[in-house]
Amino acid sequence: MTPSAQLVSRRHEGGWSLVEMTISLFLIISIAVFGLQTMIAGWNLQNWSIMQSMTDAYAGIETAYAQRWTFASIPTSNRWPVYPLSSSTVVIIGKTPKGPVNATVVRTSHAYNDPLTGAQSYMLESYVTYKDHLRQYCKVSKVYRDE
Amino acid sequence: MKRTTGQQSGFTLIELTLVVSVSVMIATALVGMLNLHLQTMNQAAQYRFVAKDAPFIGLLMTKTIGNAEDYRIFASRANAVAGTPAAPAVLTGPAVRLWMRQPNSTSTNIDQTYREAILSFESIGGSQGIYFFLAGNNGTFPTAPSWELAGVPLTAATFEATSGVLLVTLNGSYGDQYTFAAEKK
What we know:
The complex is a heterodimer.
Chain A lengths: L2 H66 L5 H4 L9 E10 L2 E15 L6 E12 L4 E11 L1
Antiparallel strand pairs in A: 1-2, 2-3, 3-4
Chain B lengths: L12 H34 L1 H19 L3 E5 L2 H6 L9 E2 L1 E7 L8 H4 E11 L2 E8 L12 E4 L5 E7 L2 E7 L5 E5 L4
Antiparallel strand pairs in B: 1-3, 2-7, 3-4, 4-5, 5-6, 7-8, 8-9
């Protein structure tokens, strides 16, 4: 290449280098943003999974109490008021490194009296509800108790 | 001085300034994102216990304890081995003694009718965890654990009897906690 041809080539490269650098940096930042979005999606999924397992565990606790509650105390303890009444309690269902995790437990029951035998029975219902930034979730525990 | 076309080699000051400015802006943004990335990764690692480990330990313990017909909670494994009345049972403690009915047993001797086991959170050989001690057919508990049910990153496990329900609370390293009822479902 002759010296004059080299000068012409440099003159052209001088203008293009800024464009090339901007494009490459734009590509790098696009990849970084994509990676960040993927990571945040993973983070949200992990939080969702934590809430699912904690609410499942609490619904299991509600089931265990409903199975073990002294039958004669069910109508008097007022833990499961007879429908349409209900009780609502905010409970701590677990703790994360950030702090306690709260959920709301709504309890109610349906009482049945067998007309033939006079036997009393109850359907004890507990609804564990919680909200994240998008939607509300509910886990149900239903236990049938009879004499 | 008159500039000739042949002397215009390299970049102009404006070009260089623009390139440096854009580079600095993008580098700042990248460093910020890298920082955020590292923070999120660190947080995800801290949440690993409640997200992955604790539910699995809970499932395993529910299966194990769910097989028992009866249980008693004790302040330590030594107390659980001694049993009542030598050592009093408590409502909250790190060890639980389980009674599991033996299939096809016709004996009236309680040691032969039930197989006994102890689940205990303790440190053995410098390793904290929940250990399972299965008694032999003569009712004697081994000194070494039969199995290790859970280890690191578990930092504490507490058994609690409330209204007949056996609650188990597992603690992680970052103040995280997971509670479940170890009952037959």
